[in-house]
Each structure stands twice: as C-alpha cells, then as structure tokens.
Specification:
Catalytic activity: Hydrolyzes free adenine bases from 7,8-dihydro-8-oxoguanine:adenine mismatched double-stranded DNA, leaving an apurinic site
Oligomer: single chain
Keywords: 4Fe-4S, DNA damage, DNA repair, Glycosidase, Hydrolase, Iron, Iron-sulfur, Metal-binding
Shape: globular
Largest sheet: 3 strands, mixed
Enzyme class: hydrolase
Strand content: 5-15%
Strand order of the largest sheet: 1-5-4
Number of domains: 2
Distance between the termini: 73 Å
CATH superfamily of the largest domain: Hypothetical protein, domain 2
Number of helices: 14
Number of strands: 6
CATH topology of the largest domain: Endonuclease III, domain 1
CATH architecture of the largest domain: Orthogonal Bundle
Radius of gyration: 24 Å
Function: Adenine glycosylase active on G-A mispairs. MutY also corrects error-prone DNA synthesis past GO lesions which are due to the oxidatively damaged form of guanine: 7,8-dihydro-8-oxoguanine (8-oxo-dGTP).
Cofactor: [4Fe-4S] cluster
DNA sequence: AAAACGTGGAT
DNA sequence: TATCCAAGTTT
C-alpha cells in the first residue's frame, strides 16, 4: 500500500517550501550537517502543544533570550517563569517545563535524553513530543503524530473513523511512512504539509506532492476528513473578583494553587466560580461593584466574573493574598482572564479620578 | 478512558 | 456571536 506514497517527493517539496521558524534548522543547513539545539527543540515543542506558531514565536524569543540553556531555565524562579508564560495558556506546561529542566540538569547532566523512551520519562513530554524531539534533534526515525499528521493521514488513506477512535489506525499509517534517511526533515515536512497545504479548510490539493496517491481526494471526501466525535456544550459559570489598590499604589494579588485551572499563576482573589451567594471578599473595605463583568471562555466552560474594586489605606490587612508594589507587579504576568479583570478595574479607578 | 486543561485568530 | 481549530499531556 505505502509504495504508492512517495516520501522522497515530500522531502523534495520540503526542500523548497519549508517554513522558516526560529527554532528550526532548515533543510539546507541540515544537509550541511547542522543540528538544532535539543533545548530549543524541546522548548518549542512544548510551547507548540495545542498552540499556533503565530502565538509561540514571541514567547520562544523571550524565553531563549532570558534563559539560553536548560541550566539557565532550571535555575530560574518559578514565579518568573510562570509570569513569562502568562497568556500562552495550558499552564501545566510551564509547571512541567520547570520540572523537566530541573530533571535534565539534576538527572542527566544537563543533556536531554536522545531516545523516545528516555524523553517520554520526563515531565510534560508525551508520545508526540518525545517522538518529535527524537526525530528533529537526534535524527531518530520516530513517527510524529500531531494534529497535522492526523489530518494528512486520514485524508491520504481515506480513514473515516472519527477521532479519537481513529488514533491507532492513523498512528500505524504514519509509522509506515516514517523516513529512514532524513527522519528529522521528514517529521517536519509532514507537519508543514498539514499546516500549509493539507489545511483543515480549503486544502490546496493542486500543489500537494501526494495528490496522486491521496485516497481521500480520489473519493472526494477531503473536506470531510478527519471526522471528529461531537463536542460537548460548555456550561456557564459565574463568580466574583476583587481588585484592591492600596494608597501607595500596591495591588492585592494572590498566587493560585499549584495545580488545576490556572495553577501556579498570579490572580485576583475572588469567589469560587460556582455562583455561590456566600463568598467573602479578601479584605474588609468599601467594595464597589463596578457593574461590569469579565467574560472569558475556557476549554470546557464559559466564565463571567463580576468585578469589585476598593481603595484602601496603608494599614489594610488582607485575609488572603498579598500587596505587590507597582514595581513588583507586571500586568503581563497575569493569565488572560485575570488581565481582563484588571483592565475593567483599572478603567473603573480611572473613572473615579476624573 | 473520559475529562481537565487556555488562548487568540479565522470563518 | 458562535464555533472551530492549533506541533498534546496528565490524571
């Protein structure tokens, strides 16, 4: 079966059309013997989990400028790394990033394992990321199966089983095609094909190096693949957030628990997000409901937070959280939902002063 | 094994 | 406005 699919044709296409990415060693440099820094491959792969290239670029540049090596990252303070990750989402990735960096330094002499199994044993590295690092950084012939590859394989072989049930079948198809001569280039080539040609909507079949072999195209079902199981509706949750500003300009903030939603991130103290009537503000103060709510949608629910503000004196003693001076508080350290709250609250304070 | 876990851009 | 989607992992 797989004889009909020409992996060399894909590599030829990649040689001409590879995307230029900050973490990538392109096909020309690879042919000259260059290999990417495993640290940068790992960092980029973790950032790219469920996240677009466009969103990752800036974060990758900032992280590598601040922490050029895995040892630098391992030595960083948790709060600094979490703050730098703020806005990118899926914050367990940042927590695991630190765990992984420290494990590589403490347990592997600062060098990443060069096998899929060795990589899989590290925090935050699953089947996809382990295969990607092994292939891209170490040229091991591992099959990388991400969302791009799932889409390409489902179409190429006309696999109509809905995801995620189709994963074993798709994985087997991907493994059959893995290229022995240029594993790193091949892995990136399939993903580039999915990202730029075999796209979710309006795929450019006319310029696809695998057009002739594509069973989905022959059957005229490319637009319907891959099939996906229906998604559940997102419920609406309600809560309250409290933004206190001290007379010296300090803000009352709280470090969230180290697991679960927004775990380890900075945020405004508030109620549980269950619309319970009996929540207490974090501080005795003249709270004012600003009459606006921050709206935010997470993966599995919609959230509306009512925003309350207060200006308090220098002796204010909060029951929760701590005051951070303007010098110690960067709004960019906040996850997006908390930044929305801050923007609304700041507008309310500004209105008061005018 | 199903659910939890973020966000921004495109349609 | 609502939905889909993006280089998935963990529990």
């Amino acid at each position: 079966m797989s004889e009909a699919v020409d992996t060399q044709a894909l590599l030829d296409w990649y040689d001409d059309h590879a995307r230029e990415l900050p973490w990538r060693v392109g096909p020309r440099d690879r042919a000259a013997g260059w290999r990417p820094d495993p640290y940068r491959v790992w960092l980029s792969e973790v950032m790219l989990q469920q996240t677009t290239v466009a969103a990752v670029r800036g974060y990758f540049e900032r992280f590598t400028a601040l922490w050029p090596t895995v040892a630098d990252l391992a030595a960083a303070e948790d709060a600094r790394v979490m703050g730098e990750w703020a806005g990118l989402g899926y914050y367990a990735r940042a927590r695991n990033l630190l765990k992984c960096a420290r494990a590589v330094v403490a347990g592997h002499g600062g060098r990443f394992p060069d096998t899929r199994d060795g990589l899989m044993a590290l925090p935050g590295i699953g089947p996809y990321t382990a295969a990607a690092i092994a292939a891209i950084a170490f040229d091991r012939p591992e099959a990388v199966v991400d969302g791009n590859v799932e889409r390409v394989m489902a179409r190429l072989w006309d696999i109509r089983t809905p995801l995620p049930a189709a994963k074993p079948e798709i994985g087997a198809a991907a493994a059959r095609l893995t290229h022995d001569a240029r594993p790193g280039d091949y892995a990136q080539a399939v993903m580039d094909l999915g990202a730029t040609v075999c796209t979710p909507r309006a795929p450019a079949c006319g310029i696809c190096p695998w057009m002739e072999a594509c069973a989905g195209r022959a059957a005229g079902v490319v637009a319907e693949l891959p099939a996906k199981a229906p998604k559940k509706a997102r419920p609406l949750r309600l809560g309250h957030a409290y933004v206190a500003r001290r007379s010296d300009g300090a803000w009352l903030l709280e470090r969230r628990a180290g697991r679960g939603l927004l775990g380890g991130m900075l945020g405004w103290p508030g109620s549980d997000w269950d619309d319970a009537p009996d929540h207490a503000p974090p501080l005795e103060a003249g709270w004012r409901d600003i009459g606006a709510e921050a709206r935010h949608t997470f993966t599995h629910f919609h959230l509306r937070l009512r925003v309350h503000v207060a200006e308090v004196g220098p002796d204010a003693a909060p029951a929760r959280g701590e005051f951070l001076s303007p010098a110690a508080f960067r709004p960019s350290d906040l996850p997006t939902v908390m930044r929305k709250v801050f923007d609304l609250a700041r507008g309310a304070f500004d209105t008061d002063m005018s």
